[in-house]
Amino acid sequence: MCGMNNFFKFVIIGLVLIIGLSVIYILNGNNQSLDVGLSGPDEVMAGVPFDLKVEFSNQIDSVLKNVSIIVALPDGAVFAGSGEEKLVDSKDLGDLGQGSLVSENYKIIFLSAQGGSVSGGKGIGEKLKIKTLVSYSSGSSKYEKETEKEVKILDSGVSVEIKAPEEVFSGEEFDVSVNYKNISEVDFSGLELVLEYPANFTFISSDSKADSGNNVWELGDLRKGSEGSFTVKGSVAGPENSPVIFKADLNFSLNNQKYRIDLKDVNSVISPSPLSLLILLNDKQDYVTRLNDDLKYNIGYINNTDVPLREAVVRVQILGELFDLESLDTKAVFRKTDNTLTWNSSNTPELNYIAPRSAGFVSFSIKTKTNYPVRRLGDKDFILSVKAEIESPTVPEFLNASRTYNISKMETKVAGDLALSAGAFFRDAEAGILNKGTLPLKVNQPINFTIHWILKSFATDFNGIEVRAPLKEGVKFTGVAKSNFGNAPVLDEKTNEMVWTLEKLPANKGFVDDPVEVIFQIEATPSSSQIANYMPLLGETIVRSTDTFSSVQKEIRLAQITTALPDDITVGQQGGVVQP
């Protein structure tokens, strides 16, 4: 009997193996019998169209139903003639008979590598994958076959070389040269080159007139091997060591569709000027101001050359709603139309002759206003801006400019403000909290009060707000608390303090709209030592927070709260005095 059981076990195991192998053979046989191939170049130039061929044949002994093909491109590639947003092409091919051969051609262009620029170095040498998915039905089953091809991205088919000096002086004229050449084996049409100048760049001229504004050149059609060039002349004005970045795009047309190839940025930097300029506010470069603040600006200058600079002029423009222009104190000439101060040899004789390697300064004083110019919630994060410039008609021999010039800017943040008020009430119907007990207070007789904390913010957002106040002797928290914004106060049992925290308080809360208010109830039991006096309820209230705009730490301290109850108009002056 045992031998018979073993025999049946072997038979069953054999059948399972045969069935399993048959299923695997059928599935693999179907997939292996659908031969999908991708053919195309292994390397392509950016902007140059290339052909991708997808071929597959039905080697299965049946008709394949609902055959479809999907081609998916990586970021930075497009189907020629389609918009840059189309990365997937799907085709339904219907049924495919036994032995049938399908061949589909796609024209593709690589513009960039995974969202990055390919021309000028970034993205060069990247290998990106094009994927295809062929799906079909056979019998009651559905099958898919995925194939991919890796393509290496080379430089742009149109090489564009932009050159600028590595270092330039503020105010100095310099050239930016642009050379372009079709290095591919195809002709380009509708070429357009767009230069994006730095914000502090002043365009002077170009030896090839721009077709739009002063920064767009229509290069037209460019046959393989053709090339061209032009030069732009200009100057920059800015603080020492600040970057000067020229950006460029190359646009071309294909099948009535316009495409763009990003080009490599060209970076320069403003060299230390022959005439340095520095702004200090209250002897700091990172000063943070506030309302009703006294501001003293010093604008220092240094002649870094070995030649004297004559007839220098310093101009300073002040911008900011919180400048109190009525408080301005200076010997400069003030022009109200654009808030510009001017110092020259007539009011500052030292500017008539700045000796080699010597320094000097001009100054002005001004106050900030006493109120924020807030009219709506979005009026916040105020800045005081000062733009200073100095120039002299004296030009050292090494400087290619019509004047010696420099510019400096300072932006000063204005800190926001918080306001906290605190009050205690016995009769507080508006709070919706019933206080038990009777007035006047009597020794050993418990009585309830509600404490109100009202918080307002001005001009900036605040983070990490924490309000703390200790409960005084004979006072305890009843557990009743409410808030119209965020968390309600809780009792810190370790310190016996009432604590209210807010993660964030938006700017102008309580200034433009309703303030933030919390209410909590306490129970006070007077002692005999407090007879004929007001009973202390809460100790000093402390608020700490951070101004998110200026990063200034804000702290407010309020005096203790007693049963004097000045905010409860229903209680007379003697109503809060403890009686025997």
The tally of beta strands, per DSSP, is 43
Quote the beta fraction: over 45%
CATH class of the largest domain: Mainly Beta
Count of individual helical segments? 1
Instruction: Please give the largest β-sheet.
Output: 6 strands, mixed
Helix and strand content put the structural class at: mainly beta
Q: Mean pLDDT score, rounded?
A: 87
Percent of residues in helices: under 10%
Oligomeric state of this protein: single chain
The CATH topology annotation of the largest domain reads as Immunoglobulin-like
Q: What is the CATH superfamily of the largest domain?
A: Mu homology domain, subdomain B
CATH architectural designation of the largest domain = Sandwich
Separation, N- and C-terminal Cα atoms: 106 Å
- Supply the number of structural domains: 4
Radius of gyration: 39 Å
**Unreliable sequence segments:** 1-32, 113-122
